[in-house]
């Protein structure tokens, strides 16, 4: 028995099959019961059984090399073999849609797998009602993205949907929240892309990443590509002749892919957000046909935020919401949250001062309750918090008047 080979050692045939599977060089067998060394659809390595499944493109791949979400889908369908090599029911079931489409090379597939990590599966769970104010921006977004997906019959010919939408405005006003609300409402495949997703240190990879990104979006259509802080990716070209060649190639590829998207009928939307719209390249502004201003919150929106973040405790004096609204003109939604946080910290600070005077640590079950927020706490919070988004407010208004999309109430 000691002379028998160990199961944990690889034979030449096992290594050849694993190598072909990993690099996509083995064609899928015509028969479902193809065997390798007498074992059905499985390769033994390191003492573990790893099932080999087809990705629907004529190639085999190992389930250990799949993206996390693809493994989750296969587990739900019972399409993977268990550890003892016995296939579970539904093993031969054909998947509805592959996570990654067929690519011409293994390099492009590798890039697609890295971009697949930025796909948000499921709903971000952000409702339109959870965004206070911004009624004009919400109506324009519904008209540009939500309605064409729900009622495609009406959006044909001249009324074909806008493929590029730009959300611009001061920081902290809710541009990212609006994008998540679109993903929640439309239930589309949502690509959350930032500069780190498409910029690579390797020469030529950035352009390939952009190309693969749009191919993935077409494969998973209807889909939405959300480019956050797009000014970091495609600012104005040729400024002071200090632009790197790789940056210029990346911008050119993005413009080409956007232009090709506008000429097709596929429901793929590019939703971009920026705080500096005047720094975008003119060619990109042309492709971002729908430009929506996300302004600072109006008084009605501010009072709704304060009532939600700082509710008046029952039996206590009502908080001065009118004073808060009056003193927070020019504050963004993020600034208003900071004001509420600062006001809520004042009672806790008074309690912490009392606890610090005690020599021993108070047990958790004996800790006193935090007191209510008082009028003086509101005054202190307003005194200690400054707005962060009011410096360029006039520039956003001017840009909106020159380039923006507006809707009359």
Explain what you see.
With 409 residues, the protein is an alpha/beta fold. It has three domains: 12-99, no CATH class; 116-296, P-loop containing nucleotide triphosphate hydrolases (Rossmann fold, 3-Layer(aba) Sandwich), CATH 3.40.50.300; 299-388, Helicase, Ruva Protein, domain 3. 41% of the residues lie in helices and 11% in strands. The chain has 14 helices and eleven strands. It has helices spanning 12-22, 68-77, 106-115, 135-150, 175-186, 195-198, 205-219, 245-262, 282-287, 299-309, 321-327, 333-357, 375-384, 393-403, and strands at residues 35-36, 39-40, 42-45, 48-54, 60-62, 119-120, 164-168, 189-193, 223-228, 268-274, 290-293. The strands form three sheets. It has a six-stranded mixed β-sheet with strand order 6-8-9-10-7-11, sandwiched between helices. Strands 3-4-5 form a three-stranded antiparallel β-sheet, covered by helices on one side. The chain has a two-stranded antiparallel ribbon with strand order 1-2. Strand 9 (223-228), helix 8 (245-262) and strand 10 (268-274) form a beta-alpha-beta unit. Helix 3 packs across helix 7, helix 4 (135-150) packs parallel to helix 5 (175-186) and helix 12 (333-357) crosses helix 13 (375-384). The longest helix has 25 residues, at 333-357. The termini are far apart. Residues 28-73 and 75-95 have low confidence and may be disordered.
How is the topology of this model organized?
Blueprint: H1 12-22, E1 35-36, E2 39-40, E3 42-45, E4 48-54, E5 60-62, H2 68-77, H3 106-115, E6 119-120, H4 135-150, E7 164-168, H5 175-186, E8 189-193, H6 195-198, H7 205-219, E9 223-228, H8 245-262, E10 268-274, H9 282-287, E11 290-293, H10 299-309, H11 321-327, H12 333-357, H13 375-384, H14 393-403
Parallel strand pairs: 7-10, 7-11, 8-9, 9-10
Antiparallel strand pairs: 1-2, 3-4, 4-5, 6-8
